[in-house]
Amino acid sequence: MYLFGFAKGANLTLFMESIRFAELAHAGQKRNNGRDYIDHPIEACEYLINLGIRSDELLATVMLHDVIEEQPEMLNKIKPKFGPVVFELVIQLTKSKGESDEKYFAGITDPRAVIAKGVDRISTISDILDVFDNFRLRRYIQETENYVLKLLKKTRKEDVQFGDQIRVIEFFIERFILLVKEIVKLREKT
Predict the structure, then answer these.
(1) pLDDT tens for residues 18-65?
(2) Is the confidence at residue 4, as pLDDT, over 90?
(3) CB neighbour class for 10 (10 Å; exposed up to 12, middle 13-18, buried from 19)
(4) Looking at residue 162, what DSSP letter applies?
(5) Strand pairing partners for 36?
């Protein structure tokens, strides 16, 4: 796998271990569109790498970001295996059942978690076009505009370390939103 070779070559030990861990945790799981679930965190990590991000902790976080939602029992394995930083970032990215969007997004405070949420959203938006009906697409895009984009913009203004990368993430999300809105309009005409 490309990512494992990249992680090994860059001496990103947490990222290497997170790839193995996520592959096992997501084994046999499928996304709504039928793709293997592991493809989603892999794709999100590829976005980070293409943005020039080489943070071992951030890449590991993105690889693990859905593990707890899919298998809550994995929570107890993440901290001892990946350390307190990755653990806390994964916790920030995990939405509890019944938790409101407002509370969930307010809890994403670390700039690295914001970036992770951004690349997660890019990957997910590209997957949902074929499986969401117009109502769900509109609702997802509204959530993205109301919470994800606002969180990205706020973080970009407050944290200059990742400002350029966050702006690129915002740009991609904004373009995806325009595309999805056009697709919804076309579907409604037919």
Answers:
(1) 999 999 999 999 998 999 999 999 999 999 999 999 999 999 999 999
(2) no
(3) middle
(4) G
(5) 30
Kindly tell me if the per-residue pLDDT of 1 is higher than 70: no
Q: With H, G, I as helix, E, B as strand and everything else as coil, classify residue 36.
A: strand
> Among all chains, which residue has been given the structure tokens 């806390």?
88
Spatial neighbors of 150 by CB under 8 A, at least 6 apart, are none
Could you tell me how many residues make up the chain? 190
pLDDT in tens, 76-111: 899 999 999 999 999 999 998 899 999 999 999 999
**Where does residue 92 rank: exposed (0-12), middle (13-18), buried (19+ CB within 10 A)?**
buried
List pLDDT tens digits, range 112-164.
999 999 999 999 998 898 899 999 999 999 999 999 999 999 999 998 889 99
* Domain annotation for the chain: domains and CATH numbers: 2-189 (1.10.3210.10)
- The packing angle between helices 150-158 and 111-128, to 10°, is 150
With contact defined as beta carbons under 8 Å apart, do 31 and 48 qualify?
no
Backbone phi and psi for residue 32, each to the nearest 5 degrees, phi listed first: -60, -30
Choose among 154, 152, 149, 147: nearest CA to 178.
149
Cβ atoms of residues 78 and 36 within 8 Å: no
